[in-house]
Amino acid sequence: MFRGTLRYPGWCACLKKVVELGLLDETPVTYSPGTTFAKWIAGFIAARSTENIRAQVARHLKLDVKSNVLERWEWLGLFSNDPLPIVGQQTTPLDVLAARLEAKMQYKQGERDMLVLLHRFVARFPGRPDEHISSTLIDFGQPDGDSSMARTVSLPAAVGTRLILTGAIREPGVHIPVKPEIYNPILDELATMGIHFEEKAEELS
Prior knowledge:
This protein has helices spanning 11-21, 37-44, 53-61, 68-76, 93-104, 148-165, 180-191, and strands spanning 29-30, 90-91, 114-125, 128-140, 198-203. With 205 residues, the protein is α+β, with helices and mostly antiparallel strands. It has a three-stranded antiparallel sheet with strand order 3-4-5, covered by helices on one side. The chain has a two-stranded antiparallel sheet with strand order 1-2. The longest helix has 18 residues, at 148-165. The two termini are 22 Å apart.
């Protein structure tokens, strides 16, 4: 079985350098008031100044100074003199980055996300033709409301929890949702919320 996620071109390379620089570090740290993003970034490469910080980061990460990775970071404001959003209290580099992403990547009024999930299988049976089976979910976020990503991640867990508490699911212990008595009632309730799969099967010659 192959599983994959489609990302915008350059996403993986960008995140790889985010990790290499240490921006996802969860070590507790307290930044002084007046710390800018440029000073914050300089700290990860032990730079003595923030002058030409983008070029310094490029050398440290072995990137071309005009690379798409650094273009993204420039847009995000990581080389800017904007003040850090969390100072004077314990935080982590990951929390600082998350706060910046949240501030810069908010949906505009009326915008929404779209989620597309496609499962494709080739099923083989003895004495009959193979089947190509596809199961497709297309879901949209709610403008000025919950995103599709938030809904499709949280609602299955919420529905499952309620079904356990009400006794509709009686399986003891911890299970992955591969049993019909677990996933069928959850999928049925999700369908009432507009979250459902379209399934198709066709014989292969």
